[in-house]
Amino acid sequence: MKESAEERAKKYLTLGHSEAENHAKTQLELYEKHVQDKSSVTRVISEFFKRNLIGFAWHYLKSRFGKRHPYQAYPRNGDSGVYPLQSSVPSREEITIALLSDWASDTEESDRVAHLTARYAPDYTIHMGDIYFVGTPKEIEENFTAPYSSWYYGASGSLALSGNHEMYSNGNAYFQHLLPAMYAQVGETRKTQQAGFFCLENEHWRIIGIDTGYTSVSRPFLEIISPPDCHLRKEQVDWLRDVVKLGDPADKRGLVFVSHHPYISAFREEYSKPGEQIREILGESDRPVIWFWGHDHRLVVYNKAVNGKGPEVYGRCLGHGGLPVELKMPDSVQDLEKIHLYDRRVRTELAGHQLGYNGFVMLKLNEDRLVAEYRDLEDTCVLQEAWSVNKQNGQLDWNIVNVLPELAVR
Q1: What is Dmax (Cα atoms) for the chain?
Q2: Whether residue 223 has pLDDT greater than 90
Q3: From CA 250, how far away is CA 167, in angstroms rounded?
Q4: With 396 labelled, which of 30, 61, 277, 367 sits at a CA distance of 20 to 30 A?
Q5: Domain locations in the chain?
Q6: How big is the chain by its Cα radius of gyration, in Å?
Q7: What are phi and psi of 396, to 5 degrees?
Q8: What span, in angstroms and rounded, lies between the C-alpha atoms of 140 and 382?
Q9: Contact predicate 335/267, CB 8 Å
């Protein structure tokens, strides 16, 4: 019997963030699919031990103590990782980019979000990380590369960042199976994504995808003593400085960063180190940037803020792509004060859990103006906000164009 959408969604309700738990759930998936074709109870039991316990132990040990996939960086195969933004419709000046994070769950909700994205036919699509449960080749196939998968590939490009779940399998499937399917169109040439970071740019804006996933998972015991900080590896820092030339004082284009892990969070760990590295390259103290991330399974608009020694950011959490959307409030007043808007609308209830609305964000770039439209899976525009960049000094003007009354504004 085919698994129902409700049954699949329940698997994600209490999803943990440890490698062991996610490997176990992956093996459970394999077992359940295998059982559907079995009629002998004896064979089912024997296959359970073979596929679940032994299989789980092998995957877990290989991941925890096996070799991590070699890091890929630019320049590679003659590619710099910097691509000009281009419209897929020659007569249209506006560039559209759909951002989805924590989407690759193969759930009914993720499917609906993907089909809604396709309806708007963005020039680019970017997956901001986390392929569930552990980023195996099969999970990549089901979500991205199989003929029946629902991921929408933009006509001008489709790119993917790594989250921690991709690294639960040492990044092997991410680098070997997902990146070869991703690309950026440069004129008539399609360039395959060569590394887990990239830059899309035009004369007004730079959309910079950074890799926080590769350094988000460590070894057993070591990560207890020294928790991963999601820092940008030296290869990526060198690329930002020497190829992207992020610190060029004459370049005042608007900066939009996209990552999986949060620079600011009111709910879980927040990672200041990537921001500190970016700020050091920028060499500027008063230039704000826009930063979209995922990881937390909810839609949150944070107040403009600085974390540690990082830049001042307009921070947005988009972790509501395909997982059950969490609605819990922060535990402390200090965390609550970080939030400007938080979508806590209840869409449904499952196994005693109230769940929110899945969705995605559409960026619309037109000259010096950038508009972000936040759409849920019912195609409701939850929020529309806009920035304009002053190319003389890099400063950003921001305003909310439209917002649902149900979203509390602080």
Answers
A1: 73
A2: no
A3: 37
A4: 277
A5: 5-64, 72-403
A6: 21
A7: -120, 135
A8: 29
A9: yes
